[in-house]
Amino acid sequence: MAAAGSAAAGWKAGAGALRRPYRFRCNSGMAPGVALPQAEAAMTTPSELSHDLRLRSDQDLRRRRWLVGLSLLGVGIGQIVALYQTGILRRLPDPPVGPFDSERVNASDYAYKRLQVPDAFLMIATYAVTAALAGTGGRDRAERMPLLPVALAAKTLFDVGTNLKLAREEWEDNQALCAYCQTASLVSIASAVLALPEAARGLRHWLSR
User: What is the distance between the alpha carbons of residues 129 and 126, in angstroms, rounded to a whole number?
Assistant: First the structure.
């Protein structure tokens, strides 16, 4: 009987606990010593992100600002060529010296053979992605999100390889180069150089986890 009474009391206590509503606390109200989930710990608040990107200054942030600026320069170059390739502009001025004929290159089959779209629009898209990668995350993203700077460096190196391949195709198909495209190639090379230091730090941090 005692055992039965004890079991009944235990069952009632358990049922009462189930009936009680659980109270969930937001992160700011969590007890000291409770670890945040890794994904939440990696997030920078909007206020922190705004302050970091606009007002803080360290080597990584300065390089990232250059990366954003160079990438948006690449977007601007693509926009100029896109205006020509869609008939809004009638001329593409070239430097007075060098093997450049930007109008011929950007009006050729070479420039229209990918995805049924003028290739300048692809240039705009790829440099916009690079700019977004450079602008994502706060000042300590190499520690909080270490694979993000690695992804940025990989993207810039991919762009360098792609631009060199396209320059070869450009010359083989047209016996001339597009001055705007080759300027974009220099943008990609400079971007890769700027992206590597933060990527190396992020990779070291990721491997040490």
Answer: 5
Residue 127 CA neighbour count, 13 Å, CB half: 29
The neighbouring-strand residues paired with 177 are 100
Dump pLDDT digits (tens) for 92-107: 999 999 999 999 999 9
- Rg over alpha carbons for the chain, rounded to the nearest Å, is 27
Q: Dmax of the chain from CA atoms?
A: 105
* CA separation for the pair 19, 41 (Å, rounded): 32
Three-state DSSP at 115 gives: coil
Length of the chain: 209
Which one, of 120, 122, 150, 119, lies nearest residue 134 by Cα? 150
Question: pLDDT tens digit string along 91-147?
Answer: 999 999 999 999 999 999 999 999 999 999 999 999 999 999 999 999 999 999 999
- pTM for this structure? 0.77
Rounded CA-CA distance 101/161 in Å is 22
Burial (CB < 10 A; 0-12, 13-18, 19+), residue 189, is middle
Under the phi-then-psi rule, with left for phi > 0, alpha for psi from -120 to 50, and beta for the rest, what region is 35?
beta
Helix, strand, coil fractions of the chain, as percent rounded to 5:
70, 0, 25
Cβ atoms of 115 and 122 within 8 Å: the answer is yes
Two tokens at 146?
């270490």
Is the four-CA dihedral 158, 162, 163, 164 of positive or negative sign? positive
